[in-house]
Structures are given as C-alpha cells and as structure tokens.
C-alpha cells in the first residue's frame, strides 16, 4: 500500500462510526460512580480536589468497558489500584525533574510491556501513565499524595460496589460468546447449501473458548447452560462441512445433494434457535417441520430406529441400504456425516431446552461433562504475565518496540509540553501515550480520531460554558453527563467517545476554577502535538508486520501440517490419546491461523512492501494452507471410535505429512521451494479405492485432498518473476471479462423484461450486538 492510500485508510478508520448496540444502563451505572465521588469531594473538600478525585472513578469505569471475561467489578478494583499506585509514585518523584522523568520512562515501559498479557491489560496500564502525569500537577505534600492515592482507589471501589449492587446482564458477555459460536456454525451450514467449500472463520469458536475459562469463584455461580455446550458447536462444524463436501459427502448433483441441502438448512435453524435460547436464557423453540427433516435412519437400522440410538454403530462396509433405511437417499460417508450431525443437533436441543436438568444429571454422575477451564485469579496471574513479558524481550518483538517507544515519548512529551504550556503541558504526553498502539494503523487512526474528537468536544463544551456560565456544582453535573455520554458511545468509535471525554475534561477544569479561554486553545494544540509525536515515534522506530509475513506463513504451515497428521494418525490407531492429540493440534492451528490473519491485515495497511512475497502470492499460499486444514477437518467427522478398525497405511502417511510440512516451513522461511516427496511416496504406497471399506476409502480420499492442497501451496510460492507478472495479467483480464459479461447479461435481462434472481434468501442468523472491544483492542 502506498503512503497516500494508507493515509486515506487511516482517515476513514479514525473517523468511522460503528453501529453497535448501546448499553444505557451500564453507562448510567458507571456515570453514577463518577457522580458519587465527584459530589462527595465537592461537598466535603474543594472543587480542585473534586476534579482530581474524579479521575479514579472515571478511569475505573472506562476500564470496565474493555473486553475481558473477568467480572467487571474485579477490573474496576484492579484499575483503581493501578491508578492509585501510579499517583502516589508520581507525587513522590515529582519534586525532582530528573527522578520523575526516569520514573515516567520506567512506568511507561512497563505499561507498554503489559500488552504481552493482552489488550485489556495494555489499555488499563496506559491509563495509569496518564494518571501519573495529571495528578502531579496538583501541589501537595507526601501526606496529600497518600490521600489522593486513597481517594482515587476509592473511585475504583465505588465502581465495583455499584456493579455488585446493580448487576446488568450478569453473564451476558459469556452467553453472547457461546451464542455467537452456535450462530456462526448456523451461518456456515446455511452457506454450505450453495457453496460446498465455503470458508469458515473460527473466530467465534475461539472467543467462546476464551469465555469458557472461569475463576474458581465464577465456576460456582456459572449458569449450567454455559458449561459443556461449547464442544457441541466444535463438533458440528466438521459434520456439516463433511456432509456438504462433494469429495467426502453428498455428490455434487442428484437426490443426495438435495437431501444434504435439506439437512443443512434444518441444522442452521436448530443452531439459530439454540443461539437465541442461550443468549436470552429461555427454552429453544424449533418448528416441527424442522424436526421432521432431521429424521434419518442410520445404516444398519433395519427397524427404522432413530439416529440418536444408532449414531455410534459402524455402517456397513459397502454402504448399501437395507430394510427401512432404503427410504434414506444418503449413502456411505454422506450417511455417516448425516447421522453424526443429527445426533449432535439433538444434544444441542437437550442443552438449550433442559440445561438445568442436564447439569443436575452431571452432578449425580449420570453423564460426563467437560471439566472447567480454569482461569487464574489476579494474584496468581502475575507470574504468568511476567513470563509473557520475558518472552517479548527480543529485538523483533512488536510489544517490546511499543514499550520502548512509550518510554521515550512520555518523557519527551512532558518536557516539550512544559516548555510550551507550563500549566497544561502534560496534555502532550497524555495524548501521545493514549493513542499509541503496537501497530502502525491503529496508532495513526487513533491520533486522527483523538484530535478530531477533542476539537469537537472542546467546541461543544465551550459553547455550553458561554451560554450557561456554570458554577462549580453545575460544572460538576455537566461533567457527569459528559462522562455518561462517553460511556454510552464508547464502542461506536474512538472519535465519538473522545469528543465527550474532551468535554468532560473542560467541565472538570472549569469546576476547578480555570476559565475556558485558558484551557481550550492549549487543549486543542497540545493534543495535536501529542498525536504528531506518537506518529513520529512510530516512523523513527517502527514495528512493521510486512517483513515477518514469511515467518507467519511458515508457522501456519507447520501448525496445520501437525493438525492434518494428527487426524490421519488417529485412523491408524484409534485411542483416547489420539483424540486428545487431534484437539491440541487443532487449537494450535487455529492460533497460527489467527496470527496470520491479523498479521496479513496489518501488512495490507502498511505503506511498505515485501520483496519476496507479494499480496497475491500471500493470499494464494494462505488459501492452500486453509485447504490443508479443511481436508483434515473433513476427516474429523469420520474419526473411528476407540474400538474401531485401524487403517495401518494411515500411519505412514501421517508421518510423511508431518515431516514434509515441518521441512517446508523451514524452506518457506529460507525462500526455497517446498517439496512433498515423502507425502507422494506414502500415498502411492497406499492401495487404491477398490480395497478396504467406507472408513478406509474416506481417509484415503482425505489424504488425496491434503496432497492436493500441498501442491497448490508449491504453485503459490514457486514462481519466477515473469510467471508472476503473467499470472497477474491473466487474473486481471479474467476479472474484467467476467465484469463485462455480467454487465452484458444484466442489460439483456432488462431489455427482455425477464428478471434474474439468485438463490432464495435465507433467514437472517442471529448476530451478536453486544460488546465489541473499543478501537485499538484485540479481540
């Protein structure tokens, strides 16, 4: 991307306003915490003291809006404690400029390294740097420093108390995460009806897995419906994919394909109903016609028994229908996938309709549930965070570079701001550290958004002040209203929330006795200077993602190779350990896929180029690796039971896949051509389709799909510069020809009076309208 296009994208992103579901009750509750602290301080002490004491309540309230699966009251307490410590240390060191600058640099560095623990920790830690810069401007002694620190911590305590006394949608975020997982699989099943090889984004499943980890205290109070149901969505995904795939499921045309489409549509309806039930805490309502579609006689059920009773029985080797099952058109592997899908859907409905009863049986030992995924408490998580920080202490770490930029920008901004405006110079480093993020695009977009929001906010606040001439109490009330509006629109866009935050600051300073004409010009100009300083810091010491794309691609290839090998190996020797290995490899491959997607999205927004991998090659290579993972996912549906028949040839192929993909990952890093000699030899040594039963034919067909994906990867990265140019020209020519043909057909349809309609529209799946992370945080 050129610099001009990058800057246009930055402006668009920074000033964008997203449509999100607002949470007025949560915003009012957080604003009430600010009002309590502000009102008590204003009544008992002084307006200037009230202005500083409101910082803790406002920042703690802001922290509760970050995406975290811990209870919001815990986040509020942690934020209040961090703000109090930074305030006290700032007061202690404020007497000596050199000491304070050293402390500021160290504190900023630690705040930057906190991003190793996740976006929420990074954002909250950055707020403590801002607190250190603001509170030291207030004159006072050591005793007053302790007093201010205690009051700021009490702001966090007030917010936590309000959350405890007035809960809003308790477990709502966890319910939404689980419901989104089912809704995502429902959308996937619906898309597979028309595109049997449609891609699937596992982001919702990954989020649901994160939400499933709970602390010991949460585990005692978690609703039963949130325990043990996530695995169903995980297992349904490969089932619907295998049923729809022409290679391992229903043929591309004919009665079997029509039946598969019926089952996929019914599965989507059931999953959407389950998503609504989980989100709202109600019973699932599924129309009877949908349940009629899901009635299927499994292979070997001559008496027409329901699929739930026969799901684990092994189908006949030749897949031929007998007895009552002749009414079912699906055959062979497609029938296996259908039976598996119907069984899982029945379990989904059981959970959605009778979650309490299911949990009670689990406690009595009548059914086995997945054990809790435990999340450490805040105290026990400290060693984990320190380990993550140590891992980031390497020259190529994005987090380390971000921390070093913060450590330099904060002291420099403090000195520059002090020279330009002795009274309000701290706005320069505050603006800089609050907009800085570990990546280029977010840093620049937030700088633009902060300046635009500040400009609008101070303009609105100035107009209100000139019209009303408020006293201290009215200024405090206006500040509380601004805080409530800032909380309300926090997830709609950084620029919008920053406008109300800027107004909040203007009203607070006015309550402290400062005139608007003394603060507004400085506020705007110094915020602009802070944003420019943050931008320059990234240019001087960048952390470009583009040069690391080959490493990310190699990591993704190796992870998906291990996953593909683990799945095939499970056919060679079925066992519980094999299933555990498949699950672990799947999670590793998803993590590598997510890292690649995030890195590639960042690289597309950076004004730099990769000399050895252009965008088209990266997309083709990523598509080939996705096909490798998809082939493994299709085989997951047909994994044999622990006492199932082994497929000895699968072991040799699995070893070849794992060895060749590991070597290919090293070749990709070194820009060498990957080769698949061992995989090809192992597949040639495997007997043809005429031998073995359905199980062996399925796994061999899956092995062929894996080899095809690996060959596509070689084609994507193994091309000469001339071939790349020719390929790019051919693609462009085909795209233009397709557009011309489409326009020509549209013109003929209009002229002839015949309408053209695509596939009938599908019911809109339920979407998550709840909390999304604010701009700059990672989901």
Could you describe the 3D structure shown?
With 779 residues, this protein is mostly helical. It folds into 3 domains: 24-167 and 392-540, no CATH class; 172-374, no CATH class; 547-718, Methane Monooxygenase Hydroxylase, Chain G, domain 1 (Up-down Bundle), CATH 1.20.58. It is built from 30 helices and 2 strands. The protein has a two-stranded parallel sheet. It is globular and about 85 Å long. Belongs to the YccS/YhfK family. It is found in: Cell membrane. It is a multi-pass membrane protein.
Features:
779 residues, mainly alpha, Methane Monooxygenase Hydroxylase, Chain G, domain 1, 3 domains, two-stranded parallel ribbon, 30 helices, 70% helix, 1% strand, disordered C terminus
Assess the beta-strand content as a share of residues: under 5%
Number of strands: 2
Strand order of the largest sheet: 1-2
Question: What kind of sheet is the major sheet?
Answer: 2 strands, parallel
Number of domains: 3
CA-atom Rg in angstroms: 30 Å
Write the layout of secondary structure elements.
Blueprint: H1 3-14, H2 24-44, H3 47-63, H4 72-93, H5 97-113, H6 119-135, H7 142-165, H8 172-192, H9 203-212, E1 213-214, H10 216-221, H11 230-244, H12 255-280, H13 288-293, H14 307-310, H15 332-353, H16 355-363, E2 373-374, H17 378-391, H18 398-420, H19 427-435, H20 440-468, H21 472-488, H22 494-511, H23 516-540, H24 549-572, H25 576-604, H26 615-636, H27 649-669, H28 677-685, H29 694-717, H30 721-752
Parallel strand pairs: 1-2
Helix pairs in contact: 1-20, 2-3, 2-7, 2-21, 3-4, 3-6, 3-7, 4-5, 4-6, 4-7, 5-6, 5-18, 6-19, 8-9, 8-11, 8-12, 11-15, 11-26, 12-15, 18-19, 18-23, 19-23, 20-22, 20-23, 21-22, 24-25, 24-26, 24-27, 25-26, 26-29, 27-28
């Amino acid at each position: 991307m050129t610099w001009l296009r990058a800057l246009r994208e930055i402006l668009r992103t920074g000033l964008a306003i997203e449509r999100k579901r607002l949470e007025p009750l949560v915003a009012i509750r957080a604003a009430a915490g600010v009002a309590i602290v502000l009102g008590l301080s204003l009544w008992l002490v002084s307006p200037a003291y009230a202005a500083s004491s409101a910082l803790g309540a406002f920042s703690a309230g802001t922290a509760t809006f970050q995406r975290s699966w811990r209870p919001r009251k815990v986040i509020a307490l942690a934020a209040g404690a961090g703000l109090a410590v930074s305030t006290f240390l700032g007061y202690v060191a404020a007497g000596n400029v050199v000491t304070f600058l050293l402390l500021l640099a160290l504190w900023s560095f630690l705040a930057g390294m906190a991003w190793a623990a996740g976006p929420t920790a990074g954002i909250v830690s950055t707020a403590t740097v801002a607190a250190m810069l603001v509170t030291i401007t207030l004159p006072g002694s050591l005793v007053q420093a302790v007093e201010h620190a205690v009051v700021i911590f009490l702001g966090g305590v007030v917010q936590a108390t309000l959350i405890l006394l007035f809960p809003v949608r308790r477990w709502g975020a966890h319910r939404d995460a689980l419901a989104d997982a089912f809704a995502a699989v429902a959308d996937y099943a619906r898309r597979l009806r028309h595109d049997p090889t449609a891609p699937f984004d596992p982001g919702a499943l990954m989020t649901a897995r994160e939400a499933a980890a709970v602390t010991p205290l949460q585990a005692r109070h978690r609703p039963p419906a949130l325990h043990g149901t996530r695995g169903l969505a995980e297992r349904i995904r490969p089932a619907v994919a295998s049923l729809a795939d022409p290679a391992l499921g229903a043929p591309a045309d004919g009665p079997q394909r029509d039946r598969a489409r019926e089952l996929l549509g019914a599965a989507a309806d059931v999953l959407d109903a389950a998503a609504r039930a989980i989100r709202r805490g109600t019973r699932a309502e599924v129309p009877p016609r949908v349940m009629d579609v899901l009635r299927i006689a499994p292979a070997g059920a001559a008496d027409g028994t329901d699929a739930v009773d026969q799901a684990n029985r092994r189908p006949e080797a030749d897949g031929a229908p007998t007895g009552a099952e002749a009414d079912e058109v699906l055959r062979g592997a497609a029938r296996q996938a259908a039976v598996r899908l119907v069984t899982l859907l029945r379990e989904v409905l059981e959970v959605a309709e009778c979650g309490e009863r299911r949990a009670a049986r689990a406690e009595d030992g009548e059914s086995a549930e997945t054990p809790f995924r435990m999340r450490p408490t805040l105290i026990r998580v400290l060693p984990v965070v320190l380990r993550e920080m140590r891992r980031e202490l390497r020259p190529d770490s994005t987090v380390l570079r971000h921390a070093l930029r913060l450590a330099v920008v904060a002291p420099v901004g403090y000195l520059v701001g002090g020279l330009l405006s002795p009274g309000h110079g701290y706005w320069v480093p505050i603006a800089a550290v609050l907009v800085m993020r570990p990546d280029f695009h977010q840093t620049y977009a937030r700088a633009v958004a902060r300046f635009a929001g500040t400009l609008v906010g101070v303009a609105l606040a100035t107009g209100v002040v000139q019209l009303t001439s408020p006293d201290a109490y009215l200024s405090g009330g206006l500040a509380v209203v601004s805080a409530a509006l800032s909380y309300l629109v926090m997830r709609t866009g950084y620029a919008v929330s920053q406008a109300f935050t800027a107004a909040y600051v203007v009203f607070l300073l006015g309550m402290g006795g400062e005139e608007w004409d003394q603060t507004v010009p400085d506020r705007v100009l110094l915020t602009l200077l802070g944003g420019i300083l943050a931008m320059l810091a990234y240019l001087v010491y960048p952390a470009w993602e583009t040069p690391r794309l080959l490493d990310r691609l190699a990591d993704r290839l190796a992870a998906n190779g291990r996953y593909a090998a683990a799945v095939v190996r499970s056919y060679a020797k079925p066992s519980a350990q094999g299933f555990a290995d498949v699950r672990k490899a799947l999670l590793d491959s998803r993590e590598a896929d997510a890292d690649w997607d995030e890195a590639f999205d960042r690289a597309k927004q950076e004004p730099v180029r990769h000399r050895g991998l252009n965008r088209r090659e990266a997309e083709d290579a990523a598509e080939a690796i996705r096909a490798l993972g998809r082939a493994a996912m299709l085989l997951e549906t047909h994994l044999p039971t622990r006492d199932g028949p082994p497929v000895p040839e699968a072991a040799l192929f699995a070893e070849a896949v794992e060895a060749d993909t590991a070597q290919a990952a090293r070749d990709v890093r070194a820009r060498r051509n990957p080769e698949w000699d061992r995989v090809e030899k192992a597949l040639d040594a495997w007997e043809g389709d005429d031998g073995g039963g359905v199980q062996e034919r399925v796994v061999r067909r899956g092995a062929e799909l894996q080899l095809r994906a690996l060959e596509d990867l070689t084609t994507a990265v193994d091309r000469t510069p001339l071939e790349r140019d020719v390929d790019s020209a051919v693609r462009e020519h085909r795209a233009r020809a397709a557009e011309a043909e489409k326009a020509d057909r549209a013109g003929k349809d209009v002229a002839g009076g015949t309408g053209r309609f695509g596939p009938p529209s599908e019911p809109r799946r339920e979407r998550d309208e709840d909390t999304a992370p604010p701009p700059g945080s990672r989901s």
